[in-house]
Amino acid sequence: MAEIYNKFVRDSEIKAFDINHRNTLKFNISRYYKSVIKGKKQFKDIEFAREKAANIKHKIINELDNYLIEFEANFTKRGGKIIWAEDSNEAIKAILKILKKHNTKNVVKSKSMTTEEIELNQSLEKNKIESLETDLGEYIVQLTGQKPYHIITPAMHLSKEDIAKIFNKKFNTPENSTPEEITAFVRQLLREKFTEADVGITGANFLISDIGAVALTENEGNGVMSMSFPKVHIAIAGIEKLIPSIEDLDLFWPLLSAHGTGQNVTVYNSIITGPKQENETDGPEEMYVVLLENNRTNLLSKEKQRRALSCIRCGACLNNCPVYKNIGGHAYGTIYSGPIGSVITPFLKSMNDYKHLSFASSLCGRCTENCPVKIPLHQLLLYNRKDSVKESKTKFSEKLMMFGWKKVMLNRFLIDIIGGNLKNIAIKTFFKKTWGPRRELPKIQPKSFRKLWKERRR
C-alpha cells in the first residue's frame, strides 16, 4: 500500500510542476471544451436525455443477471459464442486458447480500455503473438511503451511535435512531419496489417440485450476493419456494458459522442450480431464475446457506489476534473484515471492499495455536473472514503489525528482554550510534511472570531 501511494505522490508532484505537460494538456482539453459545447446543442433538452439514460442504466445495473442471460441467449442464437471470465487470468487463458486453436501469429486490435485493464497486449507479446493497436492514439502510445493517458484520447499528453519525434525515431520519417503526413503514413502501414491478421480483437461500447449484439462506435474505421478482415473476431467487454434494447442506441450514441468528442455522432457506428451468416459475404467466420467480471461484483454489492457501473466511458469527468488536468492520467497508476477511476479502482483492484485515489479530489462536483448518465461521482468518492475508514484501511496516526480533531471541534471550550499560538505549533508539528514544501502553512490569528466579537461588543 505504502509503495503505491508514495509513487502516486511522487508522480503527481512531478507532473503538477511540469509546465510543458500542463500546457499540452491545457491546449488539448481546451479544444475539447469548444467541441462539446457544439455537440450538446443537438439535444433539445439535454437534462431530460441525461435523466433518461441514467434511469436506463440504473435499471440495467439492478437487474444485471437477467439482462446478461438475455444477451447470451440472443447472441448464441446466431452462432456467436460467449466466454464468462471471472478475472483477468481467465480472460487471458480463454483468448490464448482461441488464438492457439487458429495458429494465430498476428492480431489487430481496435481501442479498448477493457483489454488494457487485463493487460492483453503484454500477454500476447509473451506468447510471441504480434498485437497491433490500430487506433492512431493507441498506436502512438504503443510505440512509446506507455499506457493510454485518457479514456477517449490515449495520447492526450503528447503534442504534435512530440509525436513527430516518436515517428522519426521509430520509422525515420521527417522530424517536422505534420499530423496529416503521420496519419497517411500510419494508414498505409495498417492496411497491410488488416489483410494479414488472423484474429481481430475489439472492445464493446454497448452490449444490446434484446438482439444479442455488440455496438461499436469509432472515428477511424479501424474497428470495422479489425472485425471484418480477420476470420475470427473476439470482443471483450465488462459485464456492465449492457443496454436493454437496440432502440436505446438513439439516446446513448449521441450522448457518448457529444460528451466524449463533441460530435453529433461518431463517424463509424457498427452493430455486430455474431459471425458471418450463410447469405453474407463479409464478416468473421467465428465470433466470441468475453464477458469480464474482474471484481465488478465488489462494486455491485455497494448500494451507493454501484451507480459507477453506469459509466459509458466518455471521458467527460476527466476533462472537467482539476486534479486530472494537473497530474494527468499516468500518475493514477491505473488504467482508469480521473474521477471515475478514483471511484471504481479501489473495488476492481484493492481498497487497501488504492484508497488514496478517493482522497485525490477537490470535491468540486464538476465531474457529476458533466456526466452524461448523471453518476454523482463526487458523492461516491465520499462514500469510498467512509468505507476505507470503516474497513480499517487507515493508519493509526491518521485515526489518532482525526480523533483529536473531532474532540476539539465538537467542544467550544477546547477551541477557545487552545490559543492561536498553540494551534500554529500543532499545525507545524503535524501538517508541515503533508502540506508540502511548495506551500506556506496557514497562520492562525492569536484571537478567534468569537473572542474578537465579544471584545468589540463590550
Low-confidence stretches: none
Number of strands: 10
Considering DSSP H and I runs of 4 or more, what fraction of the residues is helical? 40-55%
Could you report the average pLDDT, rounded to the nearest whole number?
A: 92
Rounded to the nearest angstrom, the distance between the terminal CA atoms is: 55 Å
**Name given to the CATH architecture of the domain at 44-144 and 164-169 and 179-294:** 3-Layer(aba) Sandwich
Strand order of the largest sheet: 1-10-7-4-2-3
Structural class: alpha/beta
**What is the highest CATH level, the class of the domain at 44-144 and 164-169 and 179-294?**
Alpha Beta
C-alpha Rg (nearest Å)? 25 Å
Percent strand: 5-15%
Given the C-alpha coordinates, what overall shape results? Answer: globular
Largest sheet: 6 strands, parallel
Can you summarize this structure?
Helices cover 54% and strands 10% of the residues. It is an alpha/beta fold.
Write structural notes for this entry.
The protein is an alpha/beta fold and 458 residues long. Among the domains are: 223 residues, NagB/RpiA/CoA transferase-like (Rossmann fold); 62 residues, no CATH class. The protein is 54% helix and 10% strand. The chain contains 23 helices and ten strands. The strands form two sheets. The protein has a six-stranded parallel beta sheet, sandwiched between helices. Strand 5 and strand 6 form a beta hairpin. Helix 2 packs antiparallel against helix 12 and helix 16 runs parallel beside helix 19. The longest helix has 22 residues. It is globular and about 95 Å long. The chain starts with a helix and ends with a helix. The model has no long low-confidence stretch (mean pLDDT 92).
